[in-house]
Amino acid sequence: MSVSPVLPLSRRSLLAGAAGSLFAAPAAFAAQPLAPSQAGSGGGGQSAVIDVNRARTDPIPIAVPALGGGDGNSAQLGQDIATVVTNDLARSGLFRPIAQQAYIQAGSSQGEAPNFQNWKAIGAQALVTGRAEAQGGGQIRVEFRLWDVLPQTQIQGTAYTTSQANWRRIAHIIADVIYERLLGEKGYFDTRIVYIGATGPRGRQTKRLAIMDQDSENNRFLTDGSWLVLTPRFHPTRDEIAFMSYANNRPRVYLFNLGSGQQRVLGEFPGMTFSPRFSPDGNSVIMSLATGQGSDIVSVDLGSHASRRLTNSGAIDVSPCYSPDGSQIAFNSDRGGDQQLYVMGAGGGSAKRISFGSGRYATPVWSPRGDLIAFTRFGGESGNFSIGVMHPDGSGERILSEGFSVEGPTFAPNGRVLMFWRQSSARDSRGSGFSSRLVSVDITGFNERVVSTPTDASDPAWSPLAA
Amino acid sequence: MLQRVLHGVGHLDNRTNGINPGLRTGAIISSAVHLVILLLLLLGLPFAQPAPEPQETAIAMVFDGTAESSIHAAAPAAVPAPAPAPDVMPAPPAQQPPKPQPTEASPPPPPTPPSPPPLQAAAPPLPTPPLPVPPPMPSPAPEITPPPPAAIPSPQQAQPLPTPPLPVPPPPSPVPPSPQSATSQPNPTKNPAPQSNALENTLEKLRSLQRQNQPPRARYNPQSGGAPNGGGNPQSDDTSALSTSQRGAIGDFVRRCWTTDPGMLDLDKMEVLLTVTTDGGGVVRRAVVSPEDAGRVASSMRLRVFSERAVRAVMDPNCANLPLPPNLMGQVRTFTFRFRP
Fold this sequence. Notes:
The complex is a heterodimer.
Chain A: H1 11-31, H2 34-39, E1 50-52, E2 56-57, E3 60-63, E4 68-69, H3 72-92, E5 95-97, H4 116-121, E6 126-135, E7 139-148, E8 153-163, H5 167-183, E9 192-199, E10 206-213, E11 220-221, E12 229-234, E13 240-245, E14 252-257, E15 263-265, E16 273-278, E17 284-291, E18 294-301, E19 307-309, E20 317-322, E21 328-333, E22 340-345, E23 348-353, E24 360-366, E25 373-378, E26 385-390, E27 398-403, E28 405-411, E29 417-424, E30 435-442, E31 449-451, E32 456-462
Parallel strand pairs in A: 3-5, 3-6, 4-6
Antiparallel strand pairs in A: 6-7, 7-8, 9-10, 9-32, 10-11, 12-13, 13-14, 14-15, 16-17, 17-18, 18-19, 20-21, 21-22, 22-23, 24-25, 25-26, 26-27, 28-29, 29-30, 30-31
Helix pairs in contact in A: 3-5
Chain B: H1 2-17, H2 21-44, H3 52-64, H4 67-74, H5 85-88, H6 91-95, H7 100-105, H8 118-122, H9 140-144, H10 199-210, H11 244-255, E1 259-260, E2 272-278, E3 284-289, H12 291-299, H13 301-315, E4 333-339
Antiparallel strand pairs in B: 2-3, 2-4
Helix pairs in contact in B: 3-4, 12-13
């Protein structure tokens, strides 16, 4: 039996092929409208999605009605807490609190779900409700709920019990929780600012160490002004401040215990010590030590008081600051002939220059997030002082604020806001020329605000989060 | 065969009656010769006679009736012989009912026992074009709007957004098994229009070719967690029914309400897919993170916040009324949005 080669084409297959081509034509024709939708999605392997991009920058509209309370005192407490929370959020520039006059209803306080339609109608995207109650023994209990109005869901609910005197802190803590829950980063409202308060005529000013809450409340002076004080810095975990004092006409770095009010000199050095800053773990302090023609950077262990010289360039190396992980140190130096920013390892050694713009750079401060280094720049094209940020490798330099004299940036503990001080030659509302004020600005360069202080102020330093 | 021969002879006789007499004798002679030959054949081959008859009857049984009747003919093979049939009758009666009996005797498997004969069961897909679309879903609104959250202050409530029953199309009704026949056509013709070159018929032919005549087998299941590779399949929703310009218009429309925090760390790397459900009027009723992004969002606070802002954007009263094309209105629709800074 012979086997003939099997041809792929038969009469049946030919007919089927013809029919197939007949069928395929309209099918392809019908599929044509779908093709662009698959191709036009922007790549990435994804197809047929609706792209929404180029977002606007807009604060989140939020309603913070007064927290409910049982009696009159509790009701007042609820209103006070709501006011503090509202002011905190508004000051950040990232929230737009809706005026209470616009509310259709009061905030619910019994834990039931709010009538979302009433809040949606006034444009609120987030809503805070809660209750404040005075309890026995001078204690208060404050509970709050954060609602996402459009999806109609509760996204946070927390209660606190504390003494009546702490009600402002509770309000700041609530604001921090709201901030973190709606922005994805820790807040900075339950913090304090230490700064140098100045009083008196120019040239004969009395400068005192002062501390206040970040919202300018609870201001108090820590020193009496007998000696000039400068550059205070917070300890990362303890209630302690490092600063420079000219006490007894010997400029040295001191430690100030906020609990006891005690001061002590940080080590005995042959020359002047200044611009201290704690290490991230709080176990040591780095500072500048003036030696002959220049100054070096030294590290002092707080336990053993042993010191270690980290630079020895013969140049002026000042303003050291650790990176948040403690592995690097940024400082400014004129070792290249001009005052510029450098970064070196925490143990010293070779340093790498990171600033290359026009003008001179000083006071580098590493962001707690690790992504930016803030600095003071002076000179350059404008001839003014300016506050800016750059990446730790020196790229992406941006100027956030400029002025006759702006100096001394400090980061909020979440790395989101900078505070610095601005000196003005013009007479201000208090009638004094060359007045200095504290100013805060978002790291995006928006939302610059003057921070209220009872006196002229300079050299701010932001505390870590208290809670 | 024999009948044809006889008919042929008859025909011949009829024709010879009115024809010229010259040929008549020839015809008679021819007939006589044929008769003689025939007789000789019959006498010489007496055993060849009975064969043809059964074949004719058997074939006639197949082509006389419909497909249904042909089934009866094929199944009981004992029927063929018309003559001995009465003796074998007891068996066929039991075989004949099977057609009605399977449907009546087995009500549980197919819940639609009174369904018409198999032919009709196969037909429904054809005349009902909107079959692929899930059934009416008259009550999407109450299902889509999530129930009011409970008053428990635990923050966990935010994450496991109550997953209300999505308008999942009901599983396709199982097609009752239609008895197959070797001779019946398994699939009804797609084009019942008469063969014609008329424009209407041509269009009808195209329409019938494109028409889906079977219920969909693959369905989008939002609770399945996406495809095994985690990539999801945006084609499973209605987004692919939009043209590029339509998608661009919708994206532009929602962009008005899309805000981010420019100072957020790593903002430029963020991206989230949302599954957005609209009602018949094109208004967004529900927006959730797509299954393929749920894991990423759950593990990153920043991305979670980013996705929540995206949800707010698409549910904002100023942007929730999506500019859908008219052909997508009137039913619950699902779209995939990709939000980027």
